[in-house]
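Go through the following before class.
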Amino acid sequence: MLRILFLALCGLLTHTRADPGALLRLGLDIMNREVQSAMDESHILEEMAAEAGKNRPGVKPIKGITNLRVKDVQLPSITLNFIPGAGIFQCVSTGMTITGKSFMGGNMEIIVALNITATNRLLQDEETGLPRFKSEGCEIILVSVKTNLPSNMLPKVVHKFLDSTLHKVLPSLMCPAIDAVLVYVNRKWANLNAPMPVGQMGTVKYVLTSIPTTTASYIQVDFSPMVQQQEGNTIQLADAGEAFEFPEGYAERSSQLLLSATFLTAELALLRKSFDVNVHDVKIGQLPPQTTKTLAGFIPKVSKAYPKSKPLVTQIRINKPPKVTMRTGNSLLHLHGTLEMFAARRRGKAPVSLFLLESHFNLKIQYSVHENRLQMVTSLDRLLSLSQESSSIGAFNEKKLTGFITDYLQEAYVPVINGALQVGFPLPDFLDMDYDLAELGIVENALVLDLKLN
């Protein structure tokens, strides 16, 4: 009984997996491009044809034909279809001419049209953790055969000779082409789980959550991204609480990448220190001069403490991790922190604190992609709360500062945030994907990139 319970528990643990922080759906658009480009880049059919006439270890010569050559290999036409739970069914349609000396002594020429079919099973490499295609069940299907063998030969003799010749030549010649093409495709996954830098603050690494799954319409790859600080500490993705999923309505055969709000939150945590700032400037954008005189217009007690106007120094510190939230068509960055204002003094003397406020405000986020990195630009949404923590000038109503602080955040602080965000965030590096062409949309709890081809 204990043994049964132990095995059941192990089974549950084996099938438990972390919630993915990013989802990738690969449609036939991208897979068709990759297989076709691999076929073109490898020139594999031409190479196989060149090898056909050479003596190869373990391959017996074909009886009745000498000086075997393969020429005039046609450009292949490739058809792919997804096989649920398995991978991709691949059919390569091509043609070629096989020449040589026949058993009758004359020059022989066989013009063949054929289909090469195989199932490309999608696996996860045990050593690297990367997706990997492996071909199974390669078959050669003859579509048509034409020959210049003499017409006075007995049809059965011709058929037997052709059947023997083609079934010995074609499988060993063409099936390795499928494997060679997959080698090219698999190479383009090689950098997928390599750590990618986020400036000098840390790295992001896309790790597969589980073996990719195949449906009738797409391959889905689930990622559990690792966000790591420069010091080596890993930033854990928070429990999403709410599920995120691909929206409906995308074109058939298309591909999408989904990035969860919790994943973007973890990435922004790398920049948290960059969000802390000391502002000494008196003149900032369209704001009035940053002096105690201006501040006294909102808090009269300031003029009593500082009859002679002094420059202001403002210190903003973010004391909670930044958080990204997403609702359809809208994304916000939530920031909690302190805002402390000081009156500057002569050189060599530390400024004097006037007051310290706790604040919570939201920034609207606009997303784009540049040079395959996710970019964010923010603008102030609203100041949600403002509370007084301490004051050297006596108690005052901090709500009177709402307008002043709101304008200050937009003019002085938002540019600091946007400057830090210019570093950009890396996207999964696979299959030579050009993310700059993607169309971006915001859905519930996630950012979706609708991937496009050149």
Observations:
- Residues 196-451 form a domain with the Bactericidal permeability-increasing protein; domain 2 fold (CATH 3.15.20.10).
- Helices lie at 2-15, 28-42, 44-51, 155-187, 261-269, 292-296, 301-305, 402-421.
- Confidence is low (pLDDT under 50) at residues 1-18.
